[in-house]
Amino acid sequence: MRTLLFLLRKEFLQISRNKLIIRMIFAIPIVQLIVLPNAANYEMKNINICIVDHDHSEYSRQLINKFTSSGYFQLTNFSETYNDALVVVEEDKADLIVEIPQGFERDLIRDNKSKAMIIANAINGQASGLSVSYANSIIQDFNNEVRFEWIQPPRINPQPIIEITTSNWFNPKMNYKYFMVPGILVLLVTIVGFLLTAINIVKEKEDGTIEQLNVSPIKKYQFILGKLIPFWILGNIVLSIGFGISYIVYGILPVGNPLLIYLFAAIYLISLLGFGLLVSTFAETQQQAMFISYFFMTVFILLSGLFAPIENMPHWARILAYMNPVSYFIDVMRMIVLKGSGFTDILPNLGII
Prior knowledge:
Elements lengths: L1 H16 L1 H21 L7 E7 L4 H11 L4 E7 L2 H9 L5 E5 L3 H7 L6 E4 L4 H26 L25 H32 L1 H7 L4 H31 L7 H25 L3 H17 L12 H8 L2 H15 L3 H10 L1
Parallel strand pairs: 1-2, 1-3
Antiparallel strand pairs: 3-4
Helix pairs in contact: 1-9, 2-7, 2-9, 3-6, 7-9, 7-10, 7-11, 7-13, 9-10, 10-13, 13-14
């Protein structure tokens, strides 16, 4: 036990003298928690739209006003022809074209129907799909307003009406940052537990001090524990710093018991520390350790469910995601922080880890 305490003291002294590790422990949580939740945002706003109005009627102006006042679209250009509008899209000045044909108001009044064309820049398929969906919704609202203006509803509606009441549980304001921040906290813990562990052990190889440890009268388990316990503690410290920043910047507090998060993090870090130790046995230099670690970190992040639901992935990707420990911790973090889940709720994920 005394030998282990001396090894732990040596490790903490080395960590305190390493400016890179100190910066990663304190600077990375602050930067990532402030920047990433604001940058990684799938809420579509300020979609640049180009209007081609061949009708120049009252109804066409009302439709255009519906787009500009929705809060989702930003009018960037009025084009005279469709070809001019395509040039605007090719120059990346517009994401969507709405073409209103000549006789739009006349056909709407005379024939009770009319047409409008929507053209989307589909380089980003997901963004273009959402843009078209928003545009269709706005046109449908405009259509309902026109029909209500023409047709006075009777006092007693002969058709049954279903009134829909919606309620958003766990995230009432549907704030995307509340969804992202718990996942980013998991990534911070993963960086400390996996990346820094691998780099620290390989650094001993480069400096030659690991040879001195090999000939010293210490046992293998003492050497391993002396290397892993400091980063296990630092992982929990980074998690605590992250919770503090989340509360100060975003006002996020766990709805459930935070001790459950620390319990899961304690077991999760053990698995990551072991993986970092495995990487360090194959890497001979810190550069090799960083390349291997970043490769696995990229796989962990993309298959974690942080940005895209695991259920939407192909079958082979879902199999890999279910083998990814990061996905289980992100799931548990969101369950406790947003839903207030208890021990029995996280027990399946805890058993897998």
